[in-house]
Amino acid sequence: MALETLTARDVMKTTVKRIHPDETLSKALSMLEGIQDVLIVEEDGEYKGVITERRIIRSGLDPSTTKVRSVLVHAPTVTPDTLYPELVRLIIDANVMDLPVSAEGRIIGIVDDDVLLTHLAKDELAERTRVEDLMTPEPVIIHPRETIAKALSLFRQHGISRLPVVEKNRLAGIVTLHDILTKAFRPRERPDYGTYIAEKESIIHLPVEDIMEKNVATATPDTRLKDAVSMLVDRAINSLIVVDDEDYPIGMLTRRDVFAWLNKRLKRQEHGVTVQLSMDKSLKEEGEAAILTEAERFIEKYADILGTGVLYVYVTRHKEKFRGLPAIFTRLRLLTDRFTIAVHAHGWGYEQSMKNALRKVEDQIFSRKEYFEQLRKRKKWVEEWLAFYDIPSI
After folding, report:
1. Over 33-78, what HEC string results?
2. Which listed CATH number (3.40.190.10, 3.90.180.10, 3.30.300.30, 3.10.580.10) goes with 3-111?
3. Is the pTM for the entire model greater than 0.70?
4. How does pLDDT run across 341-390, given as a tens digit for each residue?
5. How far is 47 from 220, CA to CA, in rounded Å?
6. Which residue in 46, 248, 263, 281 has its CB near the most CB atoms, within 10 A?
């Protein structure tokens, strides 16, 4: 089943945990079991919002006295018939991972992001995409003997919730807000406020290595998104650390990164330029991946001006080779509501041939004066192109 045709009914879980807004955060914590768990907050049968463990720990409030209503999030509700692209959009726009499903005025389920990701892992899009295309590069790191207080400071400073732990230039573990909550700050049997504060002051001076997770899920830049998503779901984790050949962290991939990337692609398929690839039988799988990757990068770069339509790609492989790379002929036809462009190019290897052809499309786009004023308002680099082509301002 295509992603675009899935509905909330197909991806929701029907087990719903409910809590009253006047219960304490301690009570909520006792009902929450893991990082993917969520409580529906209801008062007299009326939906008020949701609350998660992450929301509680980020509040920094005393859980034994603070009420749920002070911390709850007003997550938007969806209907059982809401389509997959809209579910992904709401997850990103509302900055929540859990969407309540409502029918006849009552919450009947919660959109399960595990199921959303499982369906993505089965899609061709995840098969040809690599982790490097959507990871967040250069993650903030911490040494294992730095304190929990230092980790909390880095969380606040950078607006993040997880840190790779690095020792001797190699990945040693990971520490998250979830670790700090469950291994350090989770209150025991509703302690009095003084005891809670005293314990907290003592705990923050412990080294990160005391609570970090050593069994870290990792990926490489070349890992297929399909495999990365499967790891997130199978291991019930929120992130993967991306490492280089020396096992040093060079990136981070979170569930939110995946949904943000997917949201862009689904929007593009609906309103932007789609790619249709035609190839001969000699075209290898890695060639297809390289061609589609270059096409998607081009479409994303010029998404503001291309309009709506199709980029047709015709690729033929020839017998000649240079340094092990085959001779590739690429023909492109860009048909949108703003452009009709046809070009062709040769190159050694699939990637270079595609880049050569796309460069010709780019040249034609920038040769059309009527778009310069619009472009100048949106892209700083347009002025450089005007100067390069010695074209006067409009």
Report:
1. CCCCCCEEEEECCEEEEEECHHHHHHHCCCCCCCEHHHCCECCCCE
2. 3.10.580.10
3. no
4. 999 999 998 899 999 999 999 988 887 655 555 555 555 555 555 555 55
5. 42
6. 263
